[in-house]
Design a protein that fits this description.
Elements (H helix, E strand, L loop, with lengths): L1 H9 L3 E4 L3 H13 L5 E5 L10 E5 L11 E4 L17 E2 L1 H8 L3 E6 L4 H13 L5 E5 L17 E5 L2 H4 L8 E4 L13 H13 L6 E5 L3 H8 L6 E6 L8 E5 L2 E6 L2 E7 L9 H16 L4 H10 L8 E6 L2 E5 L6 H11 L2 E6 L9 H8 L5 E4 L3 H11 L5 E4 L3 H11 L5 E4 L12 H14 L1
Parallel strand pairs: 1-2, 1-4, 2-3, 4-5, 6-8, 6-9, 7-8, 9-10, 10-11, 11-12, 16-20, 17-18, 17-20, 18-19
Antiparallel strand pairs: 12-13, 13-14, 15-16
């Protein structure tokens, strides 16, 4: 496929829109194969690049994009307030080109929450069965960085975000939507637009492809029922049982039913390193893919049960002075926070706050106000607003306000009861306060261990 990509780029006027991780990867690929190709790079930040065949445009020159043949859009670029009519047909991406030219098996995961866990778990399971596999995409490794290692026998596991899927016109062979909740409303014109971007993972599949979806999630179920294309549909559910082409829980087992035959895939009472019902749902998706790939299920179960999970996702920091500390910095929406609280069961202190992305927190505020959590430490901006709202309705928890992570941890160590848990689960994005959720989680861990 490398030669096909070279042919695609060779005689085109190319703009790389956004020079983050993926933009730099695109530049590196083009430059390594077309060393004298003229390229334009557009980014809000100042770029230092010594290349006489590159024109650098700093700022938002979106009105000029119609002049290019190819616009390699980086996922983080938002067109929320931009009229893209004159250049929409020219927008493409690494994901789009990969799905167009790669001839091997593609296994893709999307969802508001859980996609990194599922894609990483899926990669581990396949790799441990001595299968040729790579893990790329939103997980942090751009697709173009791995092209040299691929062949038609490679299983490519793709973590895909809504931003990556927003303009694709191709779909993977096996696609999964884990869930859809309100998020990224700073990037999209509406919640519906965000949900539809994720739905595109199914939209262009054919009759030989598989669409695996969470029918317990109302948004996902409604979108599928309104008109999924010709791919084979497989539902995943805790609630709905005894349906063909579905994965569900029955008699303490994960069951897959096909042609009226039930197959036991997993004992839900197995000892596993991934806690909580949300992770059990993630495991159900992985097991279904294992079945489709004809993997050894007992070996897959062993790999699943020993998977330690990823940093910043219900990560145990340690026990200090009788209090257990957990870092769930990835929890940027209310539903993820509630999952964490329900999983740990003994949360005495909850830490929330971050960037306001116009998510509706009304139900979350009601949940916290009536919960058994005794202390809520609130950081700006979202945390401050939620804390004030809880106080206004005379909620049970004691509200504490803090500006820095150091101050947060100092308060937590004073107020959290021994024998209970303190949980960082912010319900908001980190941007504006930290560069990303990883930095926020690392700061929390640093102060917990040092103060």
């Amino acid at each position: 496929m490398i030669q096909e990509l070279i042919n695609y780029f060779e005689n085109k006027n190319i703009a790389i829109l956004g020079f983050g991780i993926e933009g730099k990867s695109t530049y590196k690929f083009i430059r390594s194969h077309l060393p004298n190709k003229k390229i334009t790079i557009i980014d809000k930040q100042q770029i230092e690049l010594e290349d006489p065949n590159v024109e650098i445009i700093q700022g938002d020159k979106y009105e000029e994009l119609h002049a290019y043949d190819i616009i390699m859009k980086s996922p983080g670029i938002s067109f929320k307030f931009i009229d893209i009519t004159s250049f929409e047909s020219k927008i493409t991406s690494q994901l789009q080109l990969f799905l167009t030219y790669f001839k091997g098996k593609t296994i893709a995961v999307t969802g508001t929450k859980g996609k990194s866990t599922v894609s990483s778990l899926m990669y581990k399971v396949i790799e441990e069965q001595n299968k040729n596999t790579v893990l790329v995409g939103n997980i942090g490794t751009p697709i173009f960085d791995c092209l040299e290692t691929l062949n038609e026998d490679t299983n490519v596991v793709l973590e895909t975000s809504s931003h990556q899927l927003e303009f694709v016109t191709k779909s993977p062979n096996i696609s999964m939507i884990l869930n859809i909740f309100e998020e990224h409303l700073d990037h999209y014109k509406s919640y519906e637009a965000y949900a539809y971007a994720k739905y595109r993972i199914f939209k262009f599949q054919n009759e030989s492809d598989y669409a695996i979806y969470n029918t317990d999630n109302d948004v996902v179920r409604n979108m599928v029922e309104k008109g999924i294309p010709t791919s084979k549909k497989i539902s995943v559910s805790f609630k709905n049982q005894d349906q063909n082409n579905s994965v569900y829980i029955k008699d303490d087992h994960v069951i897959y039913k096909e042609n009226d035959v039930e197959t036991k895939l997993y004992d839900i009472n197995s000892e596993r390193s991934l806690p909580g019902d949300h992770n059990l749902c993630n495991i159900m998706f992985c097991l279904m893919v294992c079945k489709l790939l004809n993997l050894d299920i007992p070996k897959a179960v062993q790999a699943i049960n020993t998977f330690e999970g990823l940093p910043h996702r219900m990560e145990f920091v340690g026990e200090f002075d009788g209090v257990k500390y957990y870092n769930d910095s990835i929890a940027t929406i209310p539903e993820a926070v509630i999952n964490g609280v329900n999983t740990l069961k003994d949360v005495n202190t909850l830490i929330i706050g971050g960037m306001d992305r116009k998510v509706d927190y009304s139900k979350f505020i009601e949940y916290l106000a009536n919960s058994e959590i005794e202390n809520i430490i609130c950081m700006p901006i979202v945390g401050t607003n939620i804390g004030n709202s809880i106080q206004n309705i005379n909620g049970k928890p004691t509200i504490h306000h803090a500006e820095t992570m150091e101050e947060v941890v100092q308060i937590a160590k004073k107020v959290t009861k021994k024998g209970t848990t303190c949980l960082l689960s912010p319900a908001a994005a980190s941007y504006g306060f930290f560069s990303n959720f990883q930095e926020r989680g690392d700061e929390f861990k640093k102060w917990v261990k040092s103060s």
